[in-house]
## 1
Amino acid sequence: MTRVLVGIPWREQPHRVYAHDLTVRRYRDLLPDADVVDVDTDHATFCLAACRNKAVRLAEAGGYDVAVLADADTLPERGPLLEAIEQARYSRFVHLPYDQYRSLRVDGTRQFQTGTPLERCNHLVVDGACSGVYVTTPATWWAHGGQDETFLGWGFEDAAWMAAHKTLLGAEPVRHMGSVYALHHESAVKKGPQYEANAARCYRYLQAEGAPDAMRALTQEREAARLT
């Protein structure tokens, strides 16, 4: 049996608790044999990338075969998730258990909370989304450097990660046919010096896309920063 750790990046905020609790319940229902844990770091400002990296380290240290890195507001479907887990175990790529990312927004989230099945809830399809749920082995995660912990707060770490994955592993993550559903909550502030710094950092990744030496230099630079 494949040993699975579900790591949920999480720092409590009152307006996000309901989504977190629904997410935990969802994974415990879909993966009853998996261990589901919340993950935070000691960063003063919440760092989603660092939480994901920490979850992979926990999986590695615990002897798990596969880590599911699960945002605390995103609900997967059973079939694509199980397929992604089984295939990711022997894959050199990260797997995404969806090919359609559905943002439920306010109306769709209310529908779900009052009993409407997820697939029938109102939603907006977010084309090209590459966040929400990652399925990976520790070896695959570290083979392209994991995620950059200099992205603090919210924004741009996923786009930077996608560029690194494509460049250092030679292909995009493997997508599985199905949907994930992002629950509505109050949006994080996406402006200010840190947000601008994240945008500038991401631009460097986009410039390095397709150039493995330049991308490796970026990953080495960020690892040196993490260890100082």
Note: The longest helix spans residues 193-208.
## 2
Amino acid sequence: MSLYEATVPPFLQILGALSGLLTKAEAHCAAKNIKPEVLLSARLYPDMLPLTTQIQLACDFAAKGCARLTHSDVPSTPDTEKSFAELQQRLANTIDYVKGYKPEQFEGVEARDVKFPAGPDRTMTLKGQQFLSHFAFPNFYFHAATAHGILRHNGVEIGKRDFLGVS
């Protein structure tokens, strides 16, 4: 399996699933007469990031992960979304961005150095395969799963099939 096949399709699968989760969340708000900003600002615990930020970070780890692996320019996306529609647009933009990568861009990246920020004032360097499997994917899936958990905790009727995008 190429690193392209190991990277791009999984990112696209879960980004698409997150879009589906947001569609169900918006419908839940309408059906239960809940203001959307209540759900968008929901957290699993007070010291955790809200739903909106979880979606933004999942998008960032997918887009920036592909860029760093391929030594492409790392996109900068300001975190300005405040509605379901704006988050859906961010997901759509991220999906389009990730779809733009071609298999040949990933050739040989498993052994190339990838330098990336690891906090506000620190950087790390890992080989491409380790960057993907030990940093980009774990962070991406953490934020995607946390978004799912926030929605489920707040009564949105979703399950594992929704998280996987196969419902």
Note: The radius of gyration is 16 Å.
## 3
Amino acid sequence: MKVNIDIDDRHEDTSITIQAKEWTKELEDIVSMIKKRKPQRLFGISDEQTVLLDPSKIDYIYAENRKVFAVMGNKRLEIKMKLYEVEEALAGHDFMRFSKSVIGNINQIQRFELSFNGNLCVFFQSENKEYITRKYVAPIKEKLATGGMD
């Protein structure tokens, strides 16, 4: 891999261009590292108060009845964003898609149990649990096996 850096007063903003023959895991890791540099704030609503959320403390985030909620231990806070927007905001953190309606923090996973239908039941350190549908099991296992967690 070749790295070129061009520092010049003529440049208005910092810009990163990646040129590659194909998308690889290495490129995915590089993009993830770059995105981690930009802190993204998430706000949750609890008892009519707006609370700043620490992504590292969130177990999972889910959508239900057109609303999005963050689960942290025994707390459930509403987030006034769409699930895909939250997923993008947390791209630099170790959140992965668990199902169409759930994204989870893989750093909070304590253990798994295989379900009879091929899904995985994930238990978080807080003892909350959520299911990973078959479609998303392989990518999560791969990320965990390759040391994807911080």
Note: The chain has a mean pLDDT of 86.
## 4
Amino acid sequence: MNNLKKIVLLIAFFFGIISISSQKITTQEIVKPSEGKSLVYFLRTGAGPLLNFRIYDNDKFLGALSGFKYLVYECEPGQHVFWAASENRDYIEANLEPNAVYVLNAEGQMGAFIASVGFLPLNPNEFRDRRTFYQVVKGAKKQDYALTDVDKSENIQKGLQKYEDLKAGNSKKIKVLDASWKFENADKPIKQ
């Protein structure tokens, strides 16, 4: 009986290898920007998936992302300050190039009372970042970008004041998106 188990396992292993090697690499097309524009994907991953993280471009409210969804935002190239808000606020400075696609991740982290947000630029040269982008775009629901009638002016004012305070103090808490971190596709990453 013990030998029979070994033979069955060996056959299962053999057929498993054949089926794995015959699988195709999946490619997920990503949205490209209009000519002369830039495109930013905002992902929502991590802890507290039921909580919304509010996403902004400078003084413009883009939307609220809850767990494992993403938002696609087309904008003018050039200087931007993207920020996410929850229990805290986190900032990314970016100088976007035209005809380029960038990815930012609003990652839920354990906060004092609710999930806080860690806002991170993703690097297409890093396996972990490519995998995160692929998993979210492939499996998550796209959330439509829509302006809302809800007055966010007070939150925007406080958020931008906090950014200015951090900037004046030369804080290392403000992250920078490298303009060369352009995503060309959402291919399933292969660890090399």
Note: The helical segments are 2-21, 127-139, 153-168.
